[in-house]
Design goal:
Layout (H helix, E strand, L loop, with lengths): L2 H16 L4 H9 L12 E3 L3 E3 L15 E3 L4 E2 L3 H10 L7 E5 L5 H10 L4 E6 L2 H10 L6 E5 L10 E6 L8 H5 L1 E14 L13 E10 L7 E10 L7 H12 L8 E3 L9 E3 L5 E3 L8
Parallel strand pairs: 5-6, 5-8, 6-7, 8-9
Antiparallel strand pairs: 1-2, 3-4, 9-10, 10-11, 12-14, 13-14
Helix pairs in contact: 1-2, 1-3, 2-4
């Protein structure tokens, strides 16, 4: 098989694994050269444990598996199928503006850029300066992508049609809700610290598990729902002990599964509150409660 055929097969595997509905997203996975983003081979590829490829043939990186970026720091390129699930859920359209927190070396930002097209825009925040610099080089040919070496929780991305948070948080940043345009979508992993069975102990550092939540803006209301379970590395900020304790309880009792909205109106905590915080309350009440 030619490399182009391998990429097409890879994209189809991602399509079936992730039940991707967007043909533009499938086409993006078939087009973007993953080997150009993950550094020179041989590569270390795997899920719970990494195996080094026998050589630098780029065909080795076209599997639905993470590729190690820096084993000493436990950094990898992520599992394409998982990212495809979340990106597909954003229901991106040509010309839309997307904010991606945790862009890494830029591979998935290239995917996003292909989906929204030249008339769209992708704004990336990456807290790791080395990864951000690599992403800037890797994405130099994408005029519609801007990479910022910054903590994404301290960055104002401007008005967005979609926001993808690619790091575990214990709550939702009010800024991200403020910046969603009407009809805008937010995908965010709400996680607690945990250990993943079968994963090597040295890879458990800063790892969390929980639920990926989708929030949509409808005027002043924010209907929300749990999308899927998730294991992901934690955000460097946007985490605190009190929120994590409340989130742990909501996960243990499955209360979070009844999530229907993010309330932003002033109210006292009640039985509908999944995770109550001022101005951002995850709630089992219907989204139209917002004024």
């Amino acid at each position: 098989m030619t490399l182009e055929e391998v990429r097409r097969f890879f994209a189809e595997e991602i399509q079936y694994f992730a039940n991707v509905k967007s043909p533009d997203l499938v086409a993006a996975f078939a087009k973007v050269p993953r080997e150009m983003f993950v550094g020179p081979g041989p590569w270390k590829v795997g899920l719970t444990r990494f195996l080094e490829t026998p050589d630098a043939d780029p065909r080795h990186v076209y599997h639905n598996l993470p590729v190690s970026l820096d084993e000493s720091r436990n950094l990898n390129n992520g599992q394409p199928g998982s990212l495809a699930i979340w990106i597909d859920a954003l229901e991106l359209k040509t010309g839309e503006r997307v904010f991606h927190l945790g862009g890494g070396v830029g591979y998935y930002d290239a995917i996003l850029a292909e989906v929204v097209g030249r008339t769209g825009a992708v704004v990336v925040a990456e807290v790791d300066a080395d990864l951000a610099a690599r992403a800037q080089r890797n994405l130099a040919n994408y005029a519609n992508v801007t990479v910022h070496a910054i903590d994404g929780t301290e960055f104002d991305p401007g008005d967005c049609d979609a926001i993808l948070i690619n790091a575990g948080c214990t709550e939702i940043h009010s800024c991200w809700l403020d910046r969603l345009r009407d009809g805008g979508r937010l995908m965010i992993p709400l996680t607690i610290k945990t250990e993943i069975p079968g994963m090597a102990p040295e890879r458990q550092t800063n790892l969390g598990a929980g639920m990926m939540v989708k929030v949509t803006r409808r005027g002043s209301a924010f209907p929300a729902a749990v999308h899927s379970s998730i294991a992901i590395f934690s955000c460097t900020t946007m985490r605190d002990a009190e929120s994590e304790a409340d989130l742990r309880k909501a996960l243990a009792t499955r209360l979070i599964a009844r999530l229907q909205s993010v309330r932003r109106d002033a109210h006292q905590p009640d039985e509908t509150c999944v995770l109550h915080r001022n101005n951002v309350c995850l709630s089992t009440a219907a989204g139209e409660v917002n004024p």
